[in-house]
Amino acid sequence: MSNPRISKGLTRDQIVAAAVMLTRRQGLEGWSLRGVSECVGVYPGAVFHHLGGGRDVLVAAVVDDIAARILLVPARGTGWREYVRRLGEMGWGVLRQCPGVAWHIARNAASGHLPQPMGARLVAVLTEAGFGERAETTALQVIRVLCLFIAGLDELPGVDPAALERLWAADLALFLAGLDAVEGARARPGEPGITE
Known about the structure:
Helices cover 66% and strands 0% of the residues. By secondary structure, the chain is an all-alpha fold.
């Protein structure tokens, strides 16, 4: 008789999907490999085997999976500021449902890792707007700061959802005003700009 806790037929995608579900329920730091293995009905060793590593590998896969859901396609004629505003709104909509993920994206951006496809699209928008070789560095800064704002709101458990929405709107407005101020400085030749 076969043992249903053996990993026959189990895929990496199923494991990541279970971990994403647990992240929505418990936050990124609220689950273990054992909890994920229970969700997919296998022994923890089978999860480790399918991932090629432990919890850190699964956390990276979960963060990448959730970040990939922030799918804002640039519209023709949309300026970079409007794109960043809309990216922030979409990011808030996705990341507020997955506590802890925004912090990981911010930390990764600080280390030079742009989440995809969000990062590539932002770089393209910034390049088209004239940021040139600074587009990637600027994209890293934008994603890092937006995610730090969201991560800060993750740390406010028990706050009324409407109050969180107002806080996020105020944070986003403050960030965009800061970009406008920095953009003014960047426009003057020889002065430091958004990425200096």
